[in-house]
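help with this:

***
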Amino acid sequence: MKRPRIARAPRRVAPDDPAAPRARRRVRRVRLDNDLRRAQLIQLGMAAFSERTYDEVSIDDLARAAGVSKGLLYHYFRTKRDFYVAGLREIARELLDKTLGVTHTGVPLERVRQGLDAYLDHVGGHARAFVALMRGGIGSDPEVAGVIEEVRTAYVDRFLADIAGSPLSGVAVGNPLFRIAVRGWIGFIEAASIDWLSQPEVERARVRDLILEMLVAMLRAAGASLPAAP
């Protein structure tokens, strides 16, 4: 007569047991707060769109890199375009926070010099993101253009605020040519910065001084009486 087989309880495997890799493990997914998850996805999108063009990045790639499903990604961003615009807005916010959030001292031209140093430092350290912001990636999209326009307007307004109470403010009041000159100078900064990033052999200080000299020349043409850039 055969003896009945006694079922053995499964052996418990200690974490440091050599057999642990063969043991069945449960993988816990970390559940993040909605705002935290969205911020995490935006950071991922900023990196992806900075390294590749808009058309080269797919939602499948983004979901795979984030370790989430496409459905969850679409829960936060209805389309790839929405995801892209959210990333651009974050790049723009960081740029303005790092460059306009600094208190400058001295006469107006010295404050401008300090601002340019902060700007070029940030741009130099975040080259791909800056180029992605300023060049856009989906053609003449009005929302993308609006993000870039907000950045430009913020710089023009900061410049006008910095010259308040100085002799320059008297020239600026009621002089539309003055604002046009400042706006044109902002465009020059963008173009010069993008070109400088592709030519790292040019020292940052030389680029800054060139930009400052261009400002002096443009403001003189708009009717301001200014000394040469120090």
